[in-house]
Amino acid sequence: MIEERYPVVIVGAGPTGITAATLLAQYGVDTLVLDRWNGVYPQPRAVHLDDEVYRIVARLGLAEEFARISRPARGLRLVDRDMTTLAEFRRDSVFSVQGFPQANMFDQPAFEQVLRSGLARYDGVNVRGDSDITAVVHERDGVRVAFTDRVTGEHRFARAGYVLGCDGANSVVRSSIGSRMGDLGFEQRWLVVDLATDSDLHQWEGVHQVCDPVRAATYMRIGSNRYRWEFRLRPGESAADFPDLDTLRPLLDPWTGRLPDADLELVRVTDYTFRAQVADRWRDRRVFLLGDAAHLTPPFVGQGMGAGLRDAGNLAWKLAGVLGGTLPDTSLDTYEQERKPHARHMIRLATTIGWAMTEGGRVGNVVRRHLAPLAGGIPGLSAKVTDSATPALHPSAFVHRNPVARGLAGTLCPNPVPDGDSRRLDDTVPARFLFVTTREPSAGQRYEIERRGAVVVSAPPGSDLGCWLAGGHAAAAIVRPDRTVMRAGRSLAALHTELPAFTPSDPHPTATRSRRSRRA
Fold first, then answer.
1. Angle at which helices 15-26 and 108-119 pack, to 10 degrees?
2. pLDDT averaged over the chain?
3. Quick one: how far is CA 247 from the chain centroid?
């Protein structure tokens, strides 16, 4: 057998695994990424991410690349089985407080290619396809990962300080640590149809949700010439019943109309079982679960793939800090403490919306027909429906709530354009802790803040960040490398001593150019 050694081995080279590898590479952490596919998996799956997840993509240095392959969604339209509009919730395509459109549609293979191209900019990362994982075993000072080359049949193994299981719903890593999926009581079978056409479908540019318990459906445009439909399958139906355009026409005609078959290219037809599940354990010593290996989200709020990127964003900086010796190993306990309740909340939200749009039989249909138009006219409700903000993280060693400014802890710091700069905050400061303050720290306080590896960000009253702090009844906030607020308060003297020491290597080119203090 051939043995290799890495600080981190990542099992799975999908969006979650590649994101984790890139974030670790930005801190100088070498990784081996193993996947059974040799290259990007060609079939489209996920089609949406929100502005919070877009912000993670931007932290990878890929904001412009993603913008070129994606398009903002204009909102949500609820229609009945006759395609009569019940309610419409429009979403402004301007940038949110995160710095990006709130809803973004894309083709997953194209997105994965962007992610891999970004990862290729970093040394110290080895992505190896055609690799089947055969064992993940804890040893005294690390983890042993055994795998087989699917081409040569050669048996190999790697020793790692930590292993990240990003290997999907049928995770081998999850099985290796004895973790099991817990069911949250939702299971539906849906037909997924991807189609390409250069013809104009003349449809509204948002998501269409057909609220019909007999044949619920979703339509969305995901690219310049790419479209996605999802239809709930009836008992006994499968993708085999819809092999071509002739059999699909009755489903597609409300959108494609009289376009000839010659103008329509059927990219994919498959069926999925949408489930709501959360693994009972996300960590066993040096092994972690991320993405679909840890949780499965029905697609009704478009948060499935994004949840995996959130996992990677939450864990990577903590792991880099532990490997760099500036954070204690107990810091890694906060990953599951923070992410599991958040993922569970989003799954519950997805199942609730899924039920409201698809279940209830004739009674549900009557309720939707009468209530949906009223909902569209309630002041403030439209903004609530289209708001992409997600819940605050639960308290942990890195999320401290206090009676005065507890509303900020666990939420994301805004990402404004600082005064005198054309770039957003995230582009002007490194992936370190930030001390965002409306008041100038004393010389001693600044020394202590910078000694711990943090960056002072000035937030004058009236500025975007200043108004954000004032709205949270705070004068300053500690912002983590993933841009989550750790703690906020009114006393700089008390707050600055709560900063953790965090000084990993930081080779990312945009980070190393950053000044030590910024104004926003």
1. 20
2. 90
3. 35
Question: Where does the pLDDT of residue 389 fall: very low under 50, low under 70, confident under 90, or very high at 90 and above?
Answer: confident
79/354 Cα distance (integer angstroms)? 14
DSSP E strands, 115-214? 125-128, 131-139, 142-149, 155-165, 181-196, 207-210
Q: How far apart are CA 399 and CA 339, in angstroms?
A: 12
Please give the Cα distance from 262 to 282 (Å, whole number): 48
188-239 pLDDT, tens digit each: 999 999 999 999 999 998 999 998 888 999 999 999 999 999 999 999 999 9
Instruction: Give the pLDDT of residue 368.
Output: 54
The set of residues, in sequence order, having a beta carbon less than 8 Å from that of 315 and lying 6+ positions away, is 20, 164, 288, 290, 332, 335, 339
Cα–Cα dist 508/487, whole Å: 26
**Could you give the CA distance from residue 77 to residue 418 in angstroms, rounded to a whole number?**
36
Name the β-bridge partners of 296. 277
How far is Cα 431 from Cα 416, in angstroms, rounded to an integer?
Answer: 16
The torsion angle over the Cα atoms of residues 17, 23, 29 and 31, rounded to 10 degrees, is 20
Instruction: Report CA 137 to chain centroid distance, whole Å.
Output: 29
Q: What is the mean pLDDT of residues 233-256?
A: 96
The dihedral through the CA atoms of 84, 80, 202, 111 has a sign that is: positive
Q: What domains can be seen in the chain, in order of their start residue?
A: 2-47+107-180+280-353 (3.50.50.60), 183-275 (3.30.9.10), 425-519 (3.40.30)
pLDDT over threshold 70, residue 345: yes
